[in-house]
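Slide 14.
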Amino acid sequence: MNRSAAEIVGEYGPFPGVDKVAGVTYDGQQVWIAAGDKLNAFDPASGETLRTIDVAADAGTAFDGQHLFQIAEERIQKIDPKTGRVLATIPAPGGGGDSGLTWAEGSLWVGQYRDRKIHQIDPATGAILRTIESNRFVTGVTWVDGELWHGTWEGEQSELRRIDPQSGKVLERLEMPPGIIVSGLESDGAEQFFCGGGTSGKVRAVRRPRRGAATRGGSVSSEDSTSE
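Slide 15: predicted structure.
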């Protein structure tokens, strides 16, 4: 298992009116953050807030290439990012104990915080398709180039972990500095992760470890976009 210090290469926020960051996703141009009673989108080049959608946003956020998905207590909302309208809802597998959220392989992947699990679920029904066990609290989930990563947060220590998507075995650990927590995780599809900073109200960019000539783009195919 590879173990190293996370390399923080950028920091955004705190943002006006945002007390905490509870979820993060990236639509290819904007970073979206869940802030309790709204979703905010900011420009990762400038850090400027570009849009706000008034919607319950308690935990993980995801983008499938067309729609946003947002955990709101015991449900997951499907949202039209152009209008902000909630198009559909499905039950969240943790019934209110859910955390991270991402999109890959035509499915939603949901972190279950205190139960230390990651579920692959049907985005239309919420049915659980499979479950991966973790040995740490799961605070964010993302896929990139076929790699499954999740955030952890226990006490004042957080990590980004690459795990085997079949067995859950930890393959790599990036340790965040003490006191800097991860409350949401999203890949930009290339060289960076966006990490929610909880009650700091910040988002931090962490460099993704290089593994030779990795392919660019989504987590599994060109149709798949990742998210926290």
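Speaker note: The chain has no helices and 21 strands.
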